[in-house]
UniProtKB/TrEMBL annotation:
It comes from the Bacteria. The gene is ftsE. Homodimer. Forms a membrane-associated complex with FtsX. It comes from Paenibacillus lutrae. It is found in: Cell membrane. It is a peripheral membrane protein. Residues 2-227 form the ABC transporter domain. This is Cell division ATP-binding protein FtsE. The keyword Nucleotide-binding applies. GO terms for biological process: cell division. InterPro entries: AAA+_ATPase (IPR003593), ABC_transporter-like_ATP-bd (IPR003439), ABC_transporter-like_CS (IPR017871), ABC_transpr_LolD-like (IPR015854), Cell_div_FtsE (IPR005286), P-loop_NTPase (IPR027417). Belongs to the ABC transporter superfamily. SUPFAM superfamilies: P-loop containing nucleoside triphosphate hydrolases. One of its GO terms (molecular function) is transmembrane transporter activity.
């Protein structure tokens, strides 16, 4: 589902964020990306959803070489990648329904399908009753659930989650993790960067540790391995 071949990322200031990364993530895996701050985790994630581009190497997502894909096909590639951020990134002047529907509108989905699918994902995240609320009227946990609904509304093959529980209290964080686990169980590959030691050590999924731009560990049913 995701493959990196000898991927390097050097920023204009000379910082080598990633250095010769080789990794494969299979369909339907749930993978944690861990490591110290500044290790290269965010760069790793941004390369997967093409917010950043590698200095060298090749990246494949769901069968596409995302470096060689033609410009007109980039929206199609991105449709297959749902992204969840720590700070939610909801549009404050749009309702919950409109925030989720917007992700389908940009790919020009039929209006009837937009309404049907938006209500389906609101039901999945247990927030159907908040459809007409603005994001500012919701708790942090509710906003993150809406961000997850938006990420999955186009049925992506992959979800990339960058610190999705970073701003949430422990109880709310576990609710978000149960939701992500359910989405993974339904067939979506999930890659999640996190500093949450308890979640990683309790859920025991595959762990890829990045240190100084290199993969330091890659373990099935791994542990966090750092003091926070």
């Amino acid at each position: 589902m995701i493959e990196m071949q000898d991927v390097w990322k050097t920023y204009p200031n000379g910082t080598h964020a990633l250095r010769g990364i080789d990794v494969k993530v299979d369909r339907n895996e749930f993978v944690y990306i861990v490591g110290p701050s500044g290790a290269g985790k965010s760069t790793f994630m941004k390369l997967v959803y093409r917010e950043e581009r590698p200095t060298k190497g090749q990246i494949f997502v769901n069968g596409f070489n995302i470096e060689k894909v033609k410009q007109r096909k980039i929206p199609y590639v991105r449709r297959n990648i749902g992204v969840i951020f720590q700070d939610y990134r909801l549009l404050p002047k749009l309702t919950v329904f409109e925030n989720i529907a917007f992700a389908m509108e940009v790919i020009e989905a039929p209006k009837k399908l937009i309404k049907k699918r938006t209500m389906e994902v609101l039901d999945l995240v247990h927030l159907k009753d908040k459809a007409n609320n603005l994001p500012g009227q919701l708790s942090g946990g509710e906003q993150q659930r809406i961000a997850i609904a938006r990420a999955i509304v186009n049925n992506p093959a992959v979800i990339v989650a960058d610190e999705p529980t970073g701003n949430l209290d422990p109880d709310t964080s576990w609710g978000i993790m149960k939701l992500l686990e359910e989405i993974n169980f339904r067939g979506t590959t999930i890659m999640m960067a996190t500093h949450n030691k308890e979640i990683v050590n309790t859920m025991r999924k595959r762990v890829i540790a990045i240190e100084n731009g290199l993969i330091a560990r890659d373990e099935l049913r791994g542990e966090y391995g750092y003091e926070e």
